[in-house]
Design a protein that fits this description.
single chain, Ribosomal Protein S5, domain 2, Alpha-Beta Plaits, six-stranded mixed beta sheet, four-stranded antiparallel beta sheet, 28% strand
């Protein structure tokens, strides 16, 4: 059995800087990945197939609409002789759906990495990245799963050479947010871009000062749809040791950044007690060398 993780993607900052003629929004984002993930397993089979299990399996529309199967088909189209047998895939869906955490894009990226590892012929990283880009704007950054600056509609990914060791608390009220609706509610579609990053970005204090000059331009619109987002941001920001509390992506997941594992896990423990119906997790962030 082969396995591959699909780490949760978190947008520490997300600026909407314009729109293309086709109406897709142009973004500038600092993206990181948490050490909490969906898990994908593969075994040889007569034909490709997908089974979804786990706490959030029911939230998916079904195997036929899942990006994992699209990723498998795209890989086989590009490298038709790389994997002779079919693959019986099992996706352990541990992360909330429509939550601003990468979701299907991270799962698709995991499928590409898994198939590349199983391939009988070499798979160049640049070629795999090109296939990822055909599956969605977030799939290339999820394929790397390391701290990066994402530009364009998300498909231009610039990995960072260094990133401070930090811990993150993730909280989701289990209210799905439709990304298209959040973009429809934007007050402005052309905003200032990200400030220049310190080089190297190696200390938590550097990142904290930089993040003070940034924002998530989707947050006000998402808060109008799910007011609990604002409440959670306030609760996390008030926790001891919290460097920043903000919404990730188009929501509704809220994160808190911490320099200490103990403080992060204590915050998660207290939030679980305060909001027993919410999804809460604490984990380290993956390093730039991941």
């Amino acid at each position: 059995m082969a396995t591959e993780s699909a780490p949760a993607k978190v947008n520490l900052a997300l600026h909407v800087v314009g729109r293309r003629p086709d109406r897709y929004h142009l973004l500038e984002s600092l993206v990181v990945f948490a050490d909490i993930a969906d898990e994908l397993e593969a075994e040889s089979a007569a034909a490709d197939g997908l089974r979804v299990v786990g706490p959030f399996a029911e939230a998916l529309a079904g195997a036929d609409g899942n990006l994992v199967m699209r990723a498998v088909a795209a890989f086989r189209a590009r490298w038709p002789r790389a994997i002779a047998a079919g693959l019986a895939l099992t996706l352990h869906k541990n992360l909330p759906v429509a939550a601003g955490l990468g979701g299907g894009s991270a799962d698709a990226a995991a499928a590409l990495r898994l198939m590349a590892a199983l391939s009988r012929e070499p798979v160049a990283a640049a070629d795999l990245m090109a296939v990822a880009a055909t599956l969605g704007a977030d799939v290339p950054m999820c394929l790397m799963s390391r701290p990066s600056i994402a530009l364009g509609i998300g498909e231009v990914v610039k990995p960072l050479l260094a990133f401070p060791a930090l811990h993150i608390v993730l909280v989701n009220p289990l209210e799905p947010v439709i990304t298209a609706e959040v973009f429809r509610r934007l007050d402005s579609h052309e905003n200032a871009g990200l400030p220049p990053l310190p080089e190297p970005l190696a200390r938590p204090a550097q990142l904290g000062l930089w993040l003070e000059e940034t924002r998530n331009d989707l947050e006000p619109a998402a808060r109008s749809l799910v007011p609990a987002i604002g409440t959670l941001i306030e609760r996390l920001a008030a926790r001891p040791g919290c460097i920043l509390a903000r919404m990730s992506g188009s929501g509704a997941t809220v994160f808190g950044l911490f320099g200490s594992s103990a403080l992060a896990h204590q915050a998660a423990h207290d939030l679980r007690a305060a909001y027993p119906g919410y999804w809460v997790a604490a984990a380290p962030l993956l390093a730039a060398s991941n």
